[in-house]
Every structure is written in structure tokens, then in C-alpha cells.
Amino acid sequence: MKLEELIVTGIRHATTEVFSTMLGVELESAEVSIEAGEPEANDGVVSLIGLAGPWVGTGSVTCSPEVACRVCSQMLMTEASAVNEEVLDAVAELTNMIIGGVKNGLEPELGALCLSIPTVVFGKNFRTKSAGTAEWIVLRFPWDGDKLVVKMCLAQAEKIHPILHAPTHTCALEI
Amino acid sequence: MEPDVLVVDDSAAIRKILQRVLHQTGMGIHTILEAGNGQEALEILQKQRIGLVLTDINMPKMDGIQLLAALKASPAWRDIPVVMITTEGGETKVGEAVRLGAAGYVRKPFTADQIKEKLVGILEPALPL
Asked: Which of B11, B85, B91 to mutate: most A Cβ within 10 Å?
């Protein structure tokens, strides 16, 4: 199977599994696309995790503030009406579980990979850009009239190092 | 005596979910304490008698593998069962945890039943007949 197909299958499986298990939500099927060139501007919440090892890259989850609050409410069984620390933490953990699930699915093909701690940004009109890769594989999951976007970019490492530490800087962020 | 449980995860969301799940298990857990990383967990362990540790693997400052190694190296703490709850599914880290003496492993995402099933086998032998 091609890497692109592996990533699409991995994101689809991990995202639906996390939503079903942790949020009690059955997601509809996602629209898949490849994003290249100048990244789109974002409004809302984006959560990023770096991947390192024989392949390097970034996984991200992007959503509106309303979807972020809904994720927090469903996951923690609590009321969340505005983006606060608890909401950002819930989105970070959601990202950790989704990208972690994708990583687990890729490892038999690509070798052992390492995940960084998630970083979450909440703001308006910001762009995220991977420093090393031109293309992102993007899956847009519709959810109750809104959407949750899961993206990943991955490229073979130029020089393979044994994994000693999680990556610290895999993503350039323009705010 | 009901055990005190220490939940170690850098995600407050996961700590909150595990608090709820542990209370729902009906296993007579006495108190649930929380730490955000391995270092904080060791500080709690120095002050409080703990019967079970549930820990994430990937955490800042001191990760779950380092925490497990520290517990197993200490005569005072080596008998405390440690269950790893993590997104890690690769054999490298899970295998390392097993080699170091982890009592069990639950992969995130998890259901309440999966946590309960794992804890029944670990806690029941320690409960008085």
C-alpha cells in the first residue's frame, strides 16, 4: 500500500475510533484532499504533534471554537461554552490519541516513530506550515453541521538517528 | 483496606476521565490522587501510601517509563502495581514497560470496561479475603 493510502486509512480509522470510544460519537466519512503550496488561513483551534524517527513530520487537528467546546463537553461530560484551558487540553488529548493511533498503524511499515507532546493554538487568521514538507494529507470529518480537520505531513528523514528524544521543533507557525 | 490510586498523566482531561471511570468501577478505591508527570508522582509517593499507579508514557520532565524504572528500583515502592495507559502501541515502549515490571497496559482510546477488566486482575489478589 502507498504511504498516502496508509496515512488516509490510519487517520480515518484512528479518528472514528477515538470519537466512538471517548466521545460516544459516530463520525460520518471524511472528505480527503492533498494540500500543497501556500497554507490556508485558520480561525479557531489547531493542535499539533511532531513525529520523528526514520520518517519525520507533523500531525494536526483543526476545528472551530464551537467544535472544540463540543469535543470537551462530550469527552469530559461537562459543560463547555467557551474555549478555556480545559477545552484546549481536551483537544490536545484528542490529537494525541488520533495521531498516536495513526503512528501505531504506520510503524510496521515505516519503523519505530516517536511523538512529541501536543501544542495547541487558539486564535484568528493564523497559518501553520511544516518546515520540511510541501504536502499535507487532509481529512475533513463533517460533524453536526461543522467539521473537524485532521492533517498529516510525513517525509523520509535525511539522516536516520536512533530515537532518543521526542522532537521539539517540527513545525513553523505563523500567527 | 481499599487502595489509594495515583493517576499520572500530563493531560488534565485524561486524569478527569480516569477519576470518573475509577469511581464507576465499584472496586472500592479509597482515594484517587493526580500527578502531571513522573516527578510529581514521586513527590506524592514520598508522602502517601499508594496501592496502584496508572501512568501515561509520554510526559514532560519525567515520562512513564522513567517513573516505572524508579518505582521498581526502590525497595519501598517496587511492589506497587503500575498500569501503563498510553497511545503507544509500538513494541519498543510497551515491551520496555513489560520488561521493567509493568503490571498491565491499556491503549488509549479506552473504554471504562477495558480499565475495569485490567484492574480486576491486579487489585483483587491484593484485597483481603
From this structure: B11
